[in-house]
Amino acid sequence: MSTGDLLTIEPQELKFPFELRKQISCSLVLLNKSDNYVAFKVKTTNPKKYCVRPNTGVMSPRSTCDVIVTMQAQKEAPPDMQCKDKFLLQGVVASPGATAKDINAEMFNKEAGHHVEEWKLRVVYVAPPRAPSPVREGSEEDSSPRASVSDNGSLSASERTVISTPYVERNEPQDNSFEARALISKLTEEKNSAIQQNKKLQQELELLRHQSSRSRRSGGIPFIYVVLVGLIGIILGYLMKRTSPVTLPANDSV
């Protein structure tokens, strides 16, 4: 906490949980502990990097004001996470009933004889808060129920149920094994049936092939042979016509 005759400022450092490419904000609380109206102004060495709201204002006596400082998103981290930026907060007594519109630079001019209080605040980068780690569950030994024996050496009904539960669970694999064997038997039967149907189809196909070959043999002379014989006859007739002797007409005597 930083204090003066006019204002008290909390905290004394601006701590930003630094994260790349993300806007980060922190707040200042100003307390006017005097009976006067106090005007304040916030300055920084890097105005393009930070946004201060409000950066000027007038506080009534015994009042408080929250100032929000927002750092713009940064593309890279500074070396060793050290920041040299600083802020300067100035406070001066204002006339009663003054507002933010009445603030001017002359009010904070020390050379003009005004009593100006100043507070220098530095910027500190801190690591962002980490997400809480998941709670580990207890070990199986700790979480598993255990039966207790009474003084007379007998167990209660609920404890006997807990103890007998593992035996019921052991029967489940046997049921699963029986279902698996039944499924395998069914698949085997379907496979054998498919093989028999395949053999039957092959026999029918072979029978159709034999019938087709018989029909070809008993069909007589194929039509193509008839066509070939006709063509050969036409060609022979044409050749014989060309080779026959030509009869010349007799010349009349004069």
UniProtKB/TrEMBL annotation:
<keyword id="KW-0472">Membrane</keyword>
<feature type="compositionally biased region" description="Polar residues">
    <location>
        <begin position="145"/>
        <end position="159"/>
    </location>
</feature>
<feature type="domain" description="MSP">
    <location>
        <begin position="6"/>
        <end position="126"/>
    </location>
</feature>
<dbReference type="GO" id="GO:0090158">
    <property type="term" value="P:endoplasmic reticulum membrane organization"/>
</dbReference>
<dbReference type="InterPro" id="IPR016763">
    <property type="entry name" value="VAP"/>
</dbReference>
<dbReference type="GO" id="GO:0005886">
    <property type="term" value="C:plasma membrane"/>
</dbReference>
<dbReference type="GO" id="GO:0005789">
    <property type="term" value="C:endoplasmic reticulum membrane"/>
</dbReference>
<dbReference type="Pfam" id="PF00635">
    <property type="entry name" value="Motile_Sperm"/>
</dbReference>
<feature type="transmembrane region" description="Helical">
    <location>
        <begin position="219"/>
        <end position="240"/>
    </location>
</feature>
<dbReference type="InterPro" id="IPR013783">
    <property type="entry name" value="Ig-like_fold"/>
</dbReference>
<keyword id="KW-0812">Transmembrane</keyword>
<keyword id="KW-1133">Transmembrane helix</keyword>
<dbReference type="GO" id="GO:0043495">
    <property type="term" value="F:protein-membrane adaptor activity"/>
</dbReference>
<feature type="coiled-coil region">
    <location>
        <begin position="184"/>
        <end position="218"/>
    </location>
</feature>
<dbReference type="InterPro" id="IPR008962">
    <property type="entry name" value="PapD-like_sf"/>
</dbReference>
<dbReference type="GO" id="GO:0061817">
    <property type="term" value="P:endoplasmic reticulum-plasma membrane tethering"/>
</dbReference>
<comment type="similarity">
    <text>Belongs to the VAMP-associated protein (VAP) (TC 9.B.17) family.</text>
</comment>
<dbReference type="InterPro" id="IPR000535">
    <property type="entry name" value="MSP_dom"/>
</dbReference>
<protein>
    <recommendedName>
        <fullName>MSP domain-containing protein</fullName>
    </recommendedName>
</protein>
<keyword id="KW-0175">Coiled coil</keyword>
<feature type="region of interest" description="Disordered">
    <location>
        <begin position="130"/>
        <end position="159"/>
    </location>
</feature>
